[in-house]
């Protein structure tokens, strides 16, 4: 078995014990890597009823079979744990150099159990693995921690994934930062590290990542590199993802002021075109990436002079238009605060915009914000709110560090109406009412309101469907995207390269050339479907219900007031029909529970009772709790 290192590390932080274990070939075939291995790990090791921030939670780092090879944009890794933000399947994926370095150290992954009595970091130096005291790093930013570890190890090439103050203080959407500007974001994996007193993971490797057919792989990768330099990625190479600002604004799908509007009157001031001209100082790429989408901003003057941050579309939108802010200096500073203190920029901006709306509606008072005039368009207030939240400081910071769903519960009254979240995770930069297929995909996503789980927004934006309404055809589209993206996130390759592959057969060819394992395109998609079903089973274990697959109140109760989609609203009858069609496409029942036949088809056999009592009550019958097993090839 090539491509895979064939080994992983298990670290018991409570006992300071390290074990090296063999990776079974059957696991590789059934779950591929990355997201798939993360799902398998959590299903096997994380029981029902535990608190995500307790020692009983497990956090695991997995790369994919392509990491460390010459396959373009393949140096990624996935981190998974029960999410402290959603209470369900939590995971995030980051780029940079860390994933490839872990493979060069000779490992496909690391699983962390328990909780260290003191703050530590884990060093993986080929087969030398050690927990090292990190108390002197407490309170240090992610950037500072990375530099301190490199200095201590006297090696600037060591790769470090670390948490900042946000992770240490368990902000529920704290992230993990590696290579300074790359993050494992969204579901609070940094908070789980903080709960375990794990400051960082440092990796140094000297081994070659072998492949099955190097000559054929070189020929195929030459074609892929040429495609990656083609027209499909041109806008990302020139402007980065902020190129989406004006596109979305023109379509009326740029969420503004906490999703109240769909266009931003100052979009030109925060566009990718303007940012490139006024703030971008450097364009960088991750390991083995021919696209180079990372645009690094620097503020040259004014109150936030000297601020430096890598600014993508989601960060720019969430801290900009969605807060009514058009000041690129302030946005860059807010992103810098998020990155250095280690919190997710999307959830940060969304939670601030939620608080701004609550303030303007009188649900939050000045005494709640400690005198901060937390109104839309107030750039300085946005930056200060982000700073307080990232450090859990003061009354406001502690409130917002809980995320918008929990903050709404604390505030009470009608605050829940203005929390733009699904399953506890805040929405990304795509308007719900003017991109309705996209909204169905956000809602069914197993990790919360995530645009990266199905890519359903593409059908709306490209005009392949009527984006201002839903029908029963959308379920099949969303399901297909989810299975395909599960494959991409398990291999793991960058989604910017997804258009470089003409079919699943080309992805399967790549997998065979690297690993030598025989998989065709249908096998890969079946593995993606298996991975997604296992993720759903994890959520069922932790209390998922059908009601968790619905969009926020605003999407179905308030018509869009502006832009080319003015008047659009999601009709509940249409949404219910689309959700039913999604469940049918997946062979789940009307409550969203996978059928025994589907689980059997995927090689997932039921052997013990589902402990989630709501299932038995809702269906009036007993269901078997699926135990993950290995499927037979060709079955």
- CATH topology name of the domain at 229-426, in short, is Aldehyde Ferredoxin Oxidoreductase Protein, subunit A, domain 2
Low-pLDDT ranges: 607-635
Shape: globular
- Rg estimate, integer Å: 23 Å
Which CATH-level-2 architecture of the domain at 229-426?
Answer: Orthogonal Bundle
> For this structure, what is the CATH homologous superfamily of the domain at 229-426?
Aldehyde Ferredoxin Oxidoreductase Protein, subunit A, domain 2
Any descriptors?
25 helices; 635 residues; 6-stranded mixed beta sheet; 19 strands; Aldehyde Ferredoxin Oxidoreductase Protein, subunit A, domain 2; single chain; alpha+beta
Q: What can you tell me about this protein's structure?
A:
- The chain has 25 helices and 19 strands.
- The protein is α+β, with helices and mostly antiparallel strands.
- It has a domain of 198 residues: Aldehyde Ferredoxin Oxidoreductase Protein, subunit A, domain 2 (Orthogonal Bundle).
- The strands form 5 sheets. The protein has a 6-stranded mixed sheet, sandwiched between helices.
- The C terminus is likely disordered.
Summary, kept brief:
With 635 residues, the chain is an alpha+beta fold.
How are the SSEs ordered, and which strands pair?
Elements: E1 7-12, E2 17-22, H1 25-31, H2 34-45, E3 59-63, E4 77-82, E5 89-94, H3 98-104, E6 109-113, E7 120-125, E8 128-133, H4 142-153, E9 159-162, H5 165-168, E10 176-178, E11 182-184, H6 189-195, E12 198-204, H7 214-228, H8 234-238, H9 244-251, H10 272-278, E13 280-284, E14 294-298, E15 308-310, H11 313-319, H12 328-341, H13 345-360, H14 379-391, H15 394-400, H16 403-411, E16 421-422, E17 425-426, H17 436-444, H18 457-461, H19 474-491, H20 504-515, H21 521-541, H22 553-557, H23 572-586, H24 596-601, E18 604-609, H25 613-619, E19 624-628
Parallel strand pairs: 1-6, 7-12
Antiparallel strand pairs: 1-2, 3-4, 3-6, 4-5, 7-8, 9-10, 9-12, 10-11, 13-14, 14-15, 16-17, 18-19
Helix pairs in contact: 1-2, 2-19, 2-21, 11-13, 12-14, 13-14, 14-15, 17-19, 19-21, 19-23, 20-21
């Amino acid at each position: 078995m090539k491509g895979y290192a064939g080994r992983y590390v298990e670290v018991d932080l409570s006992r300071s014990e390290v074990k090296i274990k063999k990776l079974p070939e059957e696991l590789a075939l059934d779950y591929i890597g990355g997201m798939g291995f993360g799902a398998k790990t959590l299903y096997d090791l994380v029981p029902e009823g535990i608190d995500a921030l307790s020692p009983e939670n497990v956090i695991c780092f997995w790369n994919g079979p392509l990491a460390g090879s010459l396959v373009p944009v393949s140096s990624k890794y996935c981190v998974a744990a029960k999410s402290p933000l959603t209470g369900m399947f939590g995971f995030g994926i980051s780029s940079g150099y860390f994933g490839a370095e872990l493979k060069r150290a000779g490992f496909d992954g690391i699983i962390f159990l328990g909780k260290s009595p003191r703050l530590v970091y884990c060093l993986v130096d080929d087969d030398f693995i050690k927990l090292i005291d990190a108390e002197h790093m407490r309170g240090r930013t992610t950037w500072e921690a990375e530099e301190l570890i490199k200095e201590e190890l006297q090696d600037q090439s060591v790769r470090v994934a670390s948490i900042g103050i946000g992770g240490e203080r368990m902000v529920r959407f704290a992230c993990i930062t590696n290579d300074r500007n790359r993050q494992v974001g969204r579901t609070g994996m940094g908070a789980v590290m903080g709960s375990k007193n794990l400051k960082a993971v440092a990796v140094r490797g000297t081994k070659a990542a072998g492949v099955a057919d190097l000559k054929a792989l070189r020929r195929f990768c030459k074609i892929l590199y040429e495609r990656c330099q083609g027209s499909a990625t041109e806008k990302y190479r020139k402007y980065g993802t902020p190129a989406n600002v004006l596109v979305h604004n023109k379509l009326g799908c740029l969420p503004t002021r906490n999703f109240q509007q769909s266009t931003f009157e100052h979009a030109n001031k925060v566009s990718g075109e303007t940012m490139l001209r006024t703030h971008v100082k450097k364009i960088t790429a991750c390991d083995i990436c021919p696209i180079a989408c990372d645009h690094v901003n620097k503020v040259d003057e004014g109150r936030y002079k000297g601020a430096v941050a890598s600014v993508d579309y989601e960060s720019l939108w969430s801290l900009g238009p969605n807060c009514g802010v058009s000041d690129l200096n302030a946005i860059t500073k807010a992103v810098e605060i998020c990155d250095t203190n280690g919190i997710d920029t999307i959830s940060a901006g969304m939670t601030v915009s939620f608080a701004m709306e609550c303030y303007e509606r009188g649900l939050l008072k000045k005494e709640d914000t400690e005198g901060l005039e937390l109104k839309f368009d107030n750039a300085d207030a946005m930056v200060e709110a982000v700073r307080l939240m990232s450090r859990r400081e003061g009354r406001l910071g502690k409130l917002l560090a809980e995320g918008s769903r929990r903050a709404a519960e604390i505030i009470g009254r009608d605050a829940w109406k203005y929390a733009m979240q699904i399953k506890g995770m805040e929405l990304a930069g795509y308007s719900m009412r003017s991109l309705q297929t996209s909204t169905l995909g956000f809602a069914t996503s197993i990790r919360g309101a995530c645009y990266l789980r199905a890519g359903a927004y593409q059908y709306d934006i490209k005009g392949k469907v009527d984006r201002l309404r839903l029908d029963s055809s959308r379920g099949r589209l969303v399901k297909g995207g989810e299975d395909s993206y599960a494959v991409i996130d398990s291999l793991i390759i960058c989604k910017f390269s997804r258009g470089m592959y003409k079919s699943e057969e080309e992805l399967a060819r790549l997998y065979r050339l690297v690993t030598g394992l025989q998989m065709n395109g249908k096998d890969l998609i079946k593995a993606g479907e298996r991975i997604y079903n296992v993720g759903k089973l994890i959520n069922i274990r932790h209390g998922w219900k059908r009601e968790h697959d619905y969009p926020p109140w605003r999407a179905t109760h308030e018509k869009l007031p502006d832009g080319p989609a003015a008047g659009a609203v999601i009709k509940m009858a249409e949404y219910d029909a689309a959700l039913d069609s999604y469940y049918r496409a997946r062979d789940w029942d009307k409550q969203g529970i996978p059928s025994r036949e589907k689980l059997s088809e995927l090689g997932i056999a039921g052997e013990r009772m589902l402990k989630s009592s709501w299932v038995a009550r809702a269906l009036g019958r007993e269901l078997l709790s699926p135990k993950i097993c290995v499927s037979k090839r060709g079955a």
